[in-house]
C-alpha cells in the first residue's frame, strides 16, 4: 500500500474503492500526509490561540515564589511556608482548582497528562514547547520535594475543610497549612503509583534538553513505584477524613500500579517493568470494561499507552492491549450503547466537572489515532471499521464544542472567543488582585465577592470550567462549582489535542 498515489492502474482502482464499502481500508492505509481531505479545508477555531491560553492557565494556578517570567501578573507569591508544619520544604506546585489546597493526587495526574501531551505532540508545539515544559517542571520540582524521603510521600498541603470555609486569595490565606503524608504504615499505592507515572513521563520530556534532571526524575520514579507496589493500600483509607470527599480514590489503586509500570516501561525500557505488566496486568484490571479516564481512574489510559508497545514497537506479549484499547474506543463512538452525549453533541460522563472527561477522552482519541496510523491499523467495533481519521474527527468535534460550537455559542475556555464564563468559581480570579487591593481580604469578607453577580475582576485566561449539564445548559454562577470551577487536570490533556489540531490546520 506504500504505492498509494503513484500513477498506476492499481492505485486508481484502490482510489475508486474508497468510495465503496472499503472506505476504511483506504483510510487505514493511505499515509496521513496524503489524507488532508478528510478534514475541512478551514478551521472553525483558532486552535493555536486556544493552545497558548491552555498552557498559560497553569501560571494562574502556581503556588510558591513566582518567577520573573510569570505572565499571569495579577498573581503574587503564596504558600511560602508550606511544609513547615512537618519540617519539610513543600513550597511550590499547583492549586488544583479554585481553592488554595495542594492535593498531590490530581497534581500528579495533571503532570502525567501534560507530559504525555508533550511526548506525543511536542514536536508540533513550536513556540509553546518551552512554556509547556515550564508548566511540567513547576509540578515535578514540587513532586521531587514531596518524595524526597524514602517510603514517604507528602500528598496534601492545607486543611480542605477549613480552606473551603473561607473565600480568600492564595496570597492572603491564613487557614492551617496542615501537611499530610503516606508511608509504610499508612500506604497509598494510588497516589504513589500516579506520582511514579508523573515522574517517569516527565523524565521523557526532559531527556534531551536536561539529561541530568531527566535522570533524577526517572530514578525517583523507580523508587516511588517500588514503594507503591511493596506497601499496597489506598490512601483514602488512612487519610479518609482529609482527602474525602475531595479526592477519594474510588477506583482503587490497581489501575495506578499498572499505569505507573506502563510509564516506567516506556521511560526506562527495563524488561523488569515489562515483566511486571505481563505477570500482573490482568489482576490489576487491564481487561476490565471500565471506560472512564480521569484523575482517579487510569484503566483506559493504561490500555492506550500499552497498546503502542504492541502496535508500534511490536511487543507481542502486550497484544491484548490492542483489544482492550479498542473496547474503550468503541464505548465512546457516538451511537454506541454506552456512550452518552448531550443534545448538542458533548460527551457526558457526570455532572461534576464533566469537561475533564471530554478533554481526557479527546486526547486518547487523537493519540490512539496516531498509534493506529503508524501501524496501519483501525478499530473494529462489532464488525464496523473505525478509522484513525474518524477518531480525530470525533475528538475535533468535542474540542470545537468546548471552544464555542454549542447551543449556547459559549466557549468553555476562559478568555477564548467572544463569549466565555464570567463568574468562574476561583478565589484568586474572583477577588481583587493584590495590585488593585493591597490590603488583606479576610476569610469571611471574601464571600461578598463570591456571592456577587459581577464578573470576575481577574481573567483566568485559558481555564477550562466544568462545563454544561446533560441538556447543554450552563448558568455561569460562581456558586455552582460543579459547572463553573476550573481544574488543572481538565487543561492538561487538552494541550496535546490542541497542538495536533493547530498543526493539522496549518496554524503552527
TrEMBL record:
Could you cite one Gene Ontology molecular function of this protein? cellulase activity
GO biological process entries: cellulose catabolic process
- Which keywords does this chain's UniProt record carry? Carbohydrate metabolism, Cellulose degradation, Glycosidase, Hydrolase, Polysaccharide degradation, Signal
* Catalytic activities: Endohydrolysis of (1->4)-beta-D-glucosidic linkages in cellulose, lichenin and cereal beta-D-glucans
Task: Name the EC number(s).
Answer: 3.2.1.4
Q: Where is the signal peptide?
A: 1-21
- What residue ranges are annotated as transmembrane? none
- Keyword match Signal: yes
Highest rank taxon of the organism = Eukaryota
Under Pfam families, the record lists:
Glyco_hydro_9
Active-site residue list: 425
Q: Which family does it belong to?
A: Belongs to the glycosyl hydrolase 9 (cellulase E) family.
Q: What name is this protein filed under?
A: Endoglucanase
Query: In which organism is this protein found?
Result: Rhodamnia argentea
Designated gene of the protein:
LOC115750151
Amino acid at each position: 500500500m506504500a504505492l498509494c498515489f503513484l500513477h498506476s492502474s492499481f492505485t486508481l482502482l484502490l482510489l475508486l474503492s474508497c468510495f465503496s464499502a472499503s472506505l476504511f481500508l483506504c483510510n487505514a492505509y493511505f499515509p496521513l500526509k496524503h489524507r488532508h481531505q478528510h478534514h475541512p479545508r478551514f478551521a472553525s477555531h483558532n486552535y493555536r490561540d486556544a493552545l497558548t491560553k491552555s498552557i498559560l492557565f497553569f501560571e494562574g494556578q502556581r503556588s510558591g515564589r513566582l518567577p520573573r517570567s510569570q505572565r499571569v501578573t495579577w498573581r503574587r507569591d503564596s504558600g511560602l511556608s508550606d511544609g513547615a508544619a512537618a519540617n519539610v520544604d513543600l513550597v511550590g506546585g499547583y492549586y488544583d482548582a479554585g481553592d488554595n489546597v495542594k492535593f498531590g493526587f490530581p497534581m500528579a495526574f495533571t503532570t502525567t497528562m501534560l507530559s504525555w501531551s508533550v511526548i506525543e505532540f511536542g514536536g508540533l508545539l513550536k513556540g509553546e514547547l518551552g512554556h509547556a515544559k515550564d508548566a511540567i517542571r513547576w509540578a515535578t520540582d514540587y513532586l521531587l520535594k514531596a518524595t524526597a524521603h524514602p517510603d514517604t510521600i507528602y500528598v496534601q498541603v492545607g486543611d480542605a475543610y477549613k480552606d473551603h470555609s473561607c473565600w480568600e486569595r492564595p496570597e492572603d490565606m491564613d487557614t492551617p497549612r496542615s501537611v499530610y503524608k503516606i508511608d509504610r504504615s499508612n500506604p497509598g499505592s494510588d497516589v504513589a503509583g500516579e506520582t511514579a507515572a508523573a515522574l517517569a513521563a516527565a523524565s521523557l520530556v526532559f531527556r534531551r534538553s536536561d539529561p541530568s534532571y531527566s535522570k533524577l526524575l526517572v530514578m525517583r520514579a523507580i523508587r516511588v513505584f517500588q514503594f507503591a507496589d511493596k506497601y499496597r493500600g489506598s490512601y483514602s483509607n488512612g487519610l479518609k477524613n482529609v482527602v474525602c470527599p475531595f479526592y477519594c480514590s474510588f477506583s482503587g489503586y490497581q489501575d495506578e500500579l499498572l499505569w505507573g509500570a506502563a510509564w516506567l516501561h516506556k521511560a526506562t525500557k527495563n524488561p523488569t517493568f515489562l515483566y511486571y505488566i505481563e505477570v500482573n496486568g490482568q489482576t490489576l484490571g487491564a481487561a476490565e470494561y471500565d471506560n472512564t479516564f480521569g484523575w482517579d481512574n487510569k484503566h483506559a489510559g493504561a490500555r492506550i499507552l500499552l497498546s503502542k508497545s504492541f502496535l508500534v514497537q511490536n511487543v507481542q506479549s502486550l497484544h491484548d492491549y490492542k483489544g482492550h484499547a479498542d473496547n474503550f474506543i468503541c464505548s465512546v463512538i457516538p451511537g454506541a450503547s454506552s456512550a452518552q452525549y448531550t443534545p448538542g453533541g458533548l460527551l457526558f460522563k457526570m455532572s461534576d466537572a464533566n469537561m475533564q472527561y471530554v478533554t481526557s477522552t479527546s486526547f486518547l482519541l487523537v493519540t490512539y489515532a496516531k498509534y493506529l496510523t503508524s501501524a496501519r491499523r483501525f478499530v473494529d467495533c462489532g464488525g464496523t471499521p473505525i478509522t484513525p481519521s474518524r477518531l480525530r474527527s470525533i475528538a475535533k468535534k468535542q474540542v470545537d464544542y468546548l471552544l464555542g460550537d454549542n447551543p449556547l455559542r459559549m466557549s468553555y475556555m476562559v478568555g477564548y472567543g467572544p463569549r466565555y464564563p464570567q463568574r468562574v468559581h476561583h478565589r484568586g480570579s474572583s477577588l481583587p488582585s493584590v495590585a488593585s487591593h493591597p490590603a488583606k481580604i479576610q476569610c469571611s469578607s471574601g464571600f461578598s465577592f463570591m456571592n456577587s453577580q459581577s464578573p470576575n475582576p481577574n481573567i483566568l485566561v485559558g481555564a477550562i470550567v466544568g462545563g454544561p449539564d446533560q441538556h447543554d445548559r450552563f448558568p455561569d454562577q460562581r456558586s455552582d462549582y460543579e459547572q463553573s470551577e476550573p481544574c488543572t487536570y481538565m487543561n492538561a490533556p487538552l494541550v496535546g489535542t490542541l497542538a495536533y489540531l493547530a498543526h493539522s490546520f496549518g496554524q503552527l
